[in-house]
Amino acid sequence: MELITKYFGDFSPVQLQQFAALDELYNDWNSKINVISRKDMESLYEKHVLHSLAIATAFEFRPGSTIVDLGTGGGFPGIPLAIFFPEVKFLLVDSIGKKLKVVDAVAEALELKNVTTRHTRIEEIKDKKFDFVVSRAVAPLKDLWQWSKPLLKKAQPNSENQKPGLICLKGGDLSQEISESGCRPRLMEVFEIFGEEYFKEKYMLYVSV
C-alpha cells in the first residue's frame, strides 16, 4: 500500500480504504479460486495494482466516459482504475467465468458502483461502444487492435486530449510484435513513471482510432 501512496497523493479517504482492502480481498479469494500466482500475491500492490495505475498517470479519463477491460482476469487493470476514476464506467470482460466471480465479489466488497462484468469473448460484444479499451498482456497487439477497433467510438473532430483507442500494458522486446500489428502505437516506458526495478522493460502502448 505504501507503494501506491508513494506515487499518488490525491486520494479521498474512501479511495484509500478501497486500495487498502485489496490485499485481504485478493488473498482470501485467491485461496479459493486461483486468479493470481501465489508468488505474485506477495507483491500484489507492485505487480498488479501499481502496474494497472500506470495508465492513470498518462490518461485522464473524463467523468462519464466508458472503458472496457479486455481479458480482465482477476480484475486488472480494471479494478484499480475503477477506484482511481470513480466517475468513469468500467465493463470488465473475460471468457473465464470463475475469474469474473472473483472480480464481482471484489467490486461488491469495495462498493464500486462504476464496475460491471460480462462473461463473454470480446469479439461478441455488439451492443456497446467505448471511449477506451484497456488490456494487460492478454494477446499480441495485432489481435488486441483487431478486437478493439469495432468497439471504439469515433473520434470527435474537435477532441483535444486523447482520441478513443486501445491502451495496453506489455513487457519485453516488442519490436516484432509492433511491426506485425501494422499499428503505430505511442510507446511509454513504465520504468520512467515508477522507478521500481520490476518495471524495467514494461511498456504502455496507445493506439488511437
UniProtKB/TrEMBL annotation:
Positions of S-adenosyl-L-methionine binding: G71, F76, I122, E123, R136
Compartment(s) of residence: Cytoplasm
Keywords, comma-separated and alphabetical: Cytoplasm, Methyltransferase, rRNA processing, S-adenosyl-L-methionine, Transferase
Pfam families linked to this entry: GidB (PF02527)
Signal sequence interval, chain numbering: none
Major subcellular site: cytoplasm
Gene3D superfamilies, alphabetized: Vaccinia Virus protein VP39
Highest taxon, organism lineage: Bacteria
Enzyme Commission number, as recorded: 2.1.1.-
Keyword S-adenosyl-L-methionine: yes
InterPro entries with a match to the protein in the record: rRNA_ssu_MeTfrase_G, SAM-dependent_MTases_sf
Record family assignment: Belongs to the methyltransferase superfamily. RNA methyltransferase RsmG family.
HAMAP family from the UniProt entry: 16SrRNA_methyltr_G (MF_00074)
Function: Specifically methylates the N7 position of a guanine in 16S rRNA.
Name of the protein described by the UniProt record: Ribosomal RNA small subunit methyltransferase G
Native organism: Niastella koreensis
